Amino acid sequence: PTPPAEAKPEPAGETAAATEPLPAPPRLEGRDPEYPDVSQRLREEGDATLRLELDAEGRVILVELESSSGHRRLDQAAMSAAPLWRFDVTGLTEADRTRGFLHTVHFRMRR
Q1: E strand segments, 1-111
Q2: What's the CA gap between 50 and 101, in Å, rounded?
Q3: Is residue 6 pLDDT above 90, yes or no?
Q4: Which residues partner with 9 through β-bridges?
Q5: pLDDT digits (tens, 9 = 90+) for 55-64
Q6: 46 contacts 71 by C-beta, under 8 angstroms
Q7: Where are the alpha helices (DSSP H) in the chain?
Q8: How far is CA 22 from CA 16, 19, 45, 46, 109, in A?
Q9: Is the backbone of residue 78 left (phi > 0), alpha (psi -120 to 50) or beta?
Q10: 5-14, 23-32, 69-78, 87-96: lowest mean pLDDT where?
């Protein structure tokens, strides 16, 4: 029989907590996404949470959908707007910026 595989220790500084995305820093530039017309007519609402990676100037260089709003159109609207945003990365290391940030876009119908 094959001996059991040995568990390899995680390299120093690579704990699960060190790889989890952080809450996004303050947004300096960029508008909220447009609420899709069809979604408004269908009264679709939801929260799309994006995982963002930022460059040294705070511009978004990678966008992933972390958690869906439940509506493809809303998710796509949020993901399409993100590359136009810039965040305050003052004091953040390159490792922090590339580890990722979570930013939630809320789509709510006006009551």
Answers
A1: 22-23, 27-29, 46-54, 60-67, 86-87, 101-107
A2: 8
A3: no
A4: none
A5: 999 999 999 9
A6: yes
A7: 16-19, 37-41, 72-81, 94-99
A8: 12, 9, 25, 21, 28
A9: alpha
A10: 5-14
